[in-house]
Amino acid sequence: MAECVRTTLNPSHFLLHSTKTPTQNPFFSSISSFEAKPNARKYPKISLSVMSSQNQSQGQTQVPSLDALLNSGRKEEVFASIKASLYNCLSETNLQLTVPGLKSKTRGKVRDIYDSGDYLVLVTTDRQSAFDRILASIPFKGQVLNETSLWWFNRTRHMIPSAVLSVPDKNVTIAKKCSVFPVEFVVRGFVTGSTETSLWTVYKNGVRNYCGNVLPNGLVKNQKLTANILTPTTKAEDHDVPVTPDEIIERGLMTQDEFDEAREKALSLFEYGQRVALERGLILVDTKYEFGKSSDGSILLIDEVHTPDSSRYWISNSYEERFQNGLEPENIDKEFLRLWFRENCNPYEDKVLPDAPEELVCELAWRYIFLYETITKSRFEMQPMGEPIHDRISRNVSSALSSLQ
Hints:
Phosphorylase Kinase, domain 1, eight-stranded antiparallel beta sheet, ATP binding, 23 strands, D-amino Acid Aminotransferase, Chain A, domain 1, alpha+beta, 405 residues
């Protein structure tokens, strides 16, 4: 039996529990809770191109509002499975104890990575990270991320090969070994965000040259940039550090040719992702990519692609009006979890964090699944309760590695 942890919402292995009672969750009941006070300032008009003809009728989009989407009949069905799995999340694995051939384990923020000699086994857990720490465990999150990435990997093969060899389990990917570049390629299309390295945070603090990008004065939060930009970061152990392209080359993190190719791929992938998202009534706001170099010298796309963990998504048909009125966009990513923690604690400095409310955890799990179904246009098949997750993963990984030998 693989050694995995059946977790509570905030496993003590990751979080120090607070004795404080969190304030009422202001971000759960309705998206309107996110609204900023209307600003009298006149905001620049935004042009969102590439609207799909299937989403247009007599000049107006037919995409329903976020409230309608998130409270559809499907939600009740999914919520029942989410609530039944609240205490059966995959928060930790130790497959090296049960799967023959696994030599070592590296624990990332979300993924547990195992070295099998010729391959890497990547287990995507249900851990929810933000502010460089684990905040909670979200039912089915690992499965959503793994399957969403696979969908995008398959649809971007014409642009760049990936390291994926097989997907033997809903939470597992077996990948080729490659030399991973210690740089995250963060691509942004809008001035937004709430973390210390987000574009809006640094911009409102007066930064006008960020990661080699010169930004004009007068930008406002959530404004669309005139062109997508790359804001790379180094993959530090505890937190990501913004870096310029010149610094990447000077530090020897990548050669000029490697960086140029990865930058071109990142911008192309993002533009493609924006087109696909917009056809489905969504705006891909920003995302991050990671790349590696195979033994034959080719650059591979690794880690994850356009998932709700690595990307920010907004609803397209309400964006313009809300922006003009100084309101926050309707979003279906993990931003509202970040906002809740920022409202209730200092997630960067507090040693003890409040527990994420159960209803917020359920809502986030539902939104992850909703985003998967919206992007892929396919039904998310939730693993039924029965066989423990760790047993299933151990069995499937063992079988897959045996067949690859």
